[in-house]
Amino acid sequence: MTKFISLSSGSNGNCYYIGNEQVSLLIDVGIGGRTINRRLAGHDLSAAQVDMVLVTHEHMDHIRFLGGFTQKYKKAVFVTGELHKVLDRHFATAGRLDGYVRETTPGVQTECMGVKFTPFSVPHDARDTVGYYIDFFGETFTFVTDVGKVTDDVVKYCSISNRLIVESNYDPGMLVTGPYTPELKKRIAEEHGHLSNEQTADLLRRSWHSGLKSVFLCHLSANNNTPAIAFDSARAALNSVGGEEVTLCALPRREASPLFIFD
Ligand SMILES: [Zn+2]
Ligand SMILES: [Zn+2]
User: Fold this and answer.
1) Of 159, 139, 135, which Cα lies nearest the Cα of 54?
2) Comparing C-alpha atoms, which of 110, 116, 124, 113 is closest to residue 80?
């Protein structure tokens, strides 16, 4: 039995939990340990039980509390060699991860406590952003957020996963007419920014396979998207390729999602 919870999702802070009775991991620590604990406690889980942290990139909404969390809970932190260099100098993490970092290489599988995971590079405006393909004791996940465009690698890993946690950041029409400055709009929409609902729909159509069971839409913009628009776009894409049975959920930004259990 595998459990998945989104503890927070979006520019306000990202943190995701995958675990079973024996082993568990977090992806990114963009919210505080106390909040993580409170949200896990609702499901009789705790931060102290977490075994490892996988990190995607150095933007604050993904690592703001990684240093404090590591100091307090002393968990292994998996980052690419390039990201390790950045975090060693980053004010949120410098000196606070020493002794806990385990370096990974994009495209190369790492195994820890029976969990197999492969980071893969994605285009984003950070030093070395990765998505993750995770084989969690036979339940396979692709986690991909903060990515400017759908790459062959993204499609490849999504095409072999049972569960997708994929960014669906913005509605292009809302971005254009929304409140952001022209510079910020350009940053979001360009190839090193974020995935639009349409790009995510394209990804779902391209990577659909009969083993796909659930899709969780993450990192929704508060200003340039709504859960309903993102959901409808992804639902239409899945339905157009035969994925009517796939469970679909737009993850909430500022609170935990329900607990999802996969048998
Ligand atoms: Zn982000
Ligand atoms: Zn980012």
Assistant:
1) 135
2) 110
Q: Per-residue pLDDT tens for 165-178?
A: 999 999 999 999 99
Q: Where are the domains of the chain?
A: 2-256
Give the distance (Å) from ligand 2 centre to CA of residue 57.
7
Report how far ligand 2's centroid is from the alpha carbon of 126 (Å).
7
SS3 state of residue 229: helix
pLDDT digits (tens, 9 = 90+) for 207-241: 999 999 999 999 999 999 999 999 999 999 999 99
Ligand 2 center to 242 CA (angstroms)? 32
Write down the H helix ranges in 101-193: 152-158, 172-177, 182-189
Question: What is the sign, positive or negative, of the torsion defined by CA atoms of 183, 186, 192, 193?
Answer: positive
- Cβ(45)–Cβ(4) below 8 Å: no
Show the CA angle centred on residue 165, arms to residues 120 and 50, nearest 5°: 85
**pLDDT, tens only, 101-123:** 999 999 999 999 999 999 999 99
Ligand 1 mean position, distance from CA 212 (Å): 25
Identify the nearest ligand to the CA of 220 by its number: 1
Residue 48 zone, left/alpha/beta (φ > 0; ψ -120 to 50; rest)? alpha
Is domain 2-256 given the CATH code 3.60.15.10 in the classification?
yes
Taking the centre of ligand 1 as the mean of its atom positions, its distance from the CA of residue 36, in whole angstroms, is 17
- Distance, first Cα to last Cα, the chain: 5
Helices marked H in the chain — which ranges?
A: 33-41, 60-63, 66-73, 81-89, 152-158, 172-177, 182-189, 197-207, 227-240
